[in-house]
What does this fold into?
Amino acid sequence: MIKKRFQKILHQTERGQAIVLVAFAIIGLVAMVGLVTDTGILLIEYGKLKRGVDAAAVSAAQQYRLKGNTLDKAALENSAYNFLQLNQSTDITSITVHSCEDAGADTFIDANSNGVWDVGETLTKDWNGNGTFDGSQKPDLCNPDPVGNPNANRKLVEVIASKKVYFGFLAVIGIRETTVTANSVGEAATIDLALVIDTSGSMAYETVAGGAAAAGNDPSVCNPNNTCQPMKVVKDTALDFLNTLYFPYDRVSIITMTGPTRNPVEVLPLSSNKAAIVAAINKIKVFQPPQCDPNNILPGTCLFYNDSSGVFEGEQCRIYEISANSPDPNVRAAADPSSCPSSNVGGALKLARISFTEDPVHTRLDAFWVVVSLIGGPANATDITDPVNYPNGFCPPNTWLPTQLPWCRDREPTVRHAADDPLIPYTNPISGVVDPHSPISLYDADDYARDMADALAKTISGEGVTIYTIGLGDAVKFTGSSDDHYPDGTKIPPAEDLLKYIAECAGEASANDCRTPVTTPKINHGQYFFAPNNIALGDIFDRIAKNIATKISQ
It folds into this structure.
């Protein structure tokens, strides 16, 4: 009897142990299922957060532009917040947006006390807000020597976000939630920009009413006072345009159509020093040839003053006019104006191309290369590449005639010529004999400008070169004759045709020289803008700035 009771008690005890073991097994099973399931939830939520942070960082970096003269930090932060919300990143507990120029105690060591970054000076940041400038904490965002080592300048924005992830099964064992954190660094392209400015005599023609021959439009008078118009407005607009760039990360070079002579000049190589860029723009002058001297007739144009009154009457090409007005037909036939035009569009574009790569140590292949070119008329001059045969540049002799305008633009404007095209015979209609320059080349200033535009557009960088052209004033639409035709009936193309080609077709090698639409463009093209007057320039430069921002966001 006692034995049976003992066995019954023992059996009941074993049943109780089994229940306990089963209970622990169930808890373990739930924990294992929870570990698998909730870990999956954790990874999914982290992936969503990471994608949101990646998008937020890219979006914030595209806001890397100036508002006034300071970085718009609020725009960076708001863009990051908005993209996190768009990517359905809920339960965010914190968002931090870092850029190298975080507001607050940020500063730089200004050894020269001139308010700008100079070579050798270093940028430092108080990332901890403790008064200690420990910029080494963020070496991935900050370049300690932005001027001396511009290749390391990068527009970087770091976004760090945390969010809570709530568990289901793991709550059984007391693990109800956790926090995950993701970070990402977005980058906006740095900009290398070549600014090409027409400085030919026409840039003083609006100083006073009356055009080229008005006394008040004398460049020797308005240049010292910085009153030449539209040049002054062009310079002021260019200075305003600088405020859409971010220094010392972006760089600018300045190219002018003329310098002390009629040849294009690189006024300033690519520079990240805004003060130097501003100074270079302020120093730009309208081309100012020497005063005409009746006792010393030189090639090129000169400033002509009335012999009796001394009043300025415009620029003259005396070396040409004297021959063209000679009673001797043989002298008239030999009148050569090729030293006088000064709108060397091709030469200026060539200098713009060189500016991107002339410093091999500081060439930035991953920068966004941009050219903004402001031109006031047609191309009518070229560089001197063959001083023996073309001592003043390419200018077909059949454009030299007194009745044949414009100079240096051939009589077959719808045909694209090359410098190495076969020469053609030419009989001078004035003398009626074979011209001493015969056979002649029809390669002209417009052809040269297109060739230089092609070479510029195809310059190799990460994205190639994007070219914007601005045609200023009616001269870009005027064709040089009242009926818009050459004497033989051929229509004269306006300068606008060339400027459209440079911005929208250069480098494509398309059929008909881009007179048909480019259906499969290979070049990252810009845009052509027409400014009927200097008042329109501000709006056009603003549109170019927005267009550049859009392109670097793509």
The two ends are 92 Å apart (CA to CA). The CA atoms of residues 142 and 367 lie 17 Å apart. Confidence is low (pLDDT under 50) at residues 103-108, 125-139.
